[in-house]
Amino acid sequence: MRYFPQLETGAMGQYPLRRVRRMRTVSNEMPDGRGVKLPDAAAATTEWQLKWVGLTDGEMETLARFFDDVAGRLHTFTFLDPGANLLCWSEDLERGVWEKGPLVTVTGGLADPFGGTRAWRVANGSLIQTLNVPGWFYYCVSMYARSDGGGQVTLVRGGETAARMVTRQWRRLTFAAQSVGAEESVRFGLEVASGAAVEVFGLQVEPQIAASGYKKTAARGGVYPNARLAEDRLYCTTAGPGRHECGLDIIHGERF
Amino acid sequence: MTFPVLKTGAVMQYPGAKELRVATDVVQFVDGGEQRYRDFGSALRRWLIRLDLLDEGELAEIEGFFTDCQGAFGNFAFTDPWDGTEYPNCSLEQDSIETVLEGELRGGTLLVVKENRS
Fold this sequence. Notes:
The complex is a heterodimer.
Chain A: E1 17-22, E2 25-29, E3 35-39, E4 45-55, H1 57-70, E5 77-80, E6 99-100, E7 105-110, E8 119-123, E9 126-131, E10 138-146, E11 152-157, E12 160-165, E13 171-178, E14 186-192, E15 197-206, E16 223-229, E17 236-240, E18 243-253
Antiparallel strand pairs in A: 1-4, 2-3, 4-18, 5-16, 6-9, 7-8, 8-15, 9-14, 10-13, 10-15, 11-12, 11-14, 16-18, 17-18
Chain B: E1 17-21, E2 24-28, E3 34-38, E4 44-54, H1 56-69, E5 75-79, E6 86-92, E7 96-101, E8 107-115
Antiparallel strand pairs in B: 1-4, 2-3, 4-8, 5-6, 6-8, 7-8
């Protein structure tokens, strides 16, 4: 599998990040203002315009090698959206994408740290989502957590885990690391000790070294298999020794 | 579907734009006279919602709403921020949404909502 590379810093992109989502609706408007509309969900596309400045020689070489590997618009690759939460259904932990341990229970509709009722209680086991992403990237797993009884929750990222203390107050817990694994799917989630319960909200995974603001997701997370470059050329400028600039447009469509 | 509100509780930011649309047909006769008549029974409304300085969560909510609507396909009720009147049959005008993150807490996008004839 081909994957769009991360920079040496662990970032997938730089600001400004521009993203365009396109849908297709077939519509027919009558003279009196009434209309008939038909959706075409499978025609949806997403485009990203990525621009980088201050790239090192190594980063520039990595991008050039990737461009050569996919041969411009020819081959597809998996793209991890730098401005998205990679998890699906981040606020519906009863969905099938979440693998639950044998005795784990999840309960929704609890008060969340932002004044809503979108938090969940997870008790007695693990809650994992497996993503088809490269195991050797940087990832940051983050979530808000609290517990009346205190204790700890373990954040999971592939084969690695990190225990974090929880208190009665909501706190954002993060676990960011780069793995040396060669696997092409990674497990993300949390584990709660037997008999313990933790309230969680805002589960998020990002392909970078630190957590950004929480982004709710539904059926689609930020993993885009079958993405393509939108152009057949890679234009770069060298501003000075070890300082390169370039840009690439990427497009993903369900029908690609 | 519910139109998303920002964390401040607002739907729109300044400058906000609103448009009223009617349709008049004009038939001109050879002698210069003309006859006019309405195609629409009443005016239709349209709102341009330009949003700046959004955080990533707000931007994700708006993109999620766009996806739920499938662009211009889905209908929803929209409350006119000028006078609080709810228009039950509205949809997005566009089949694409562009979001720009200029930096942290500096996201922006544009939505166009239009009232449909019931």
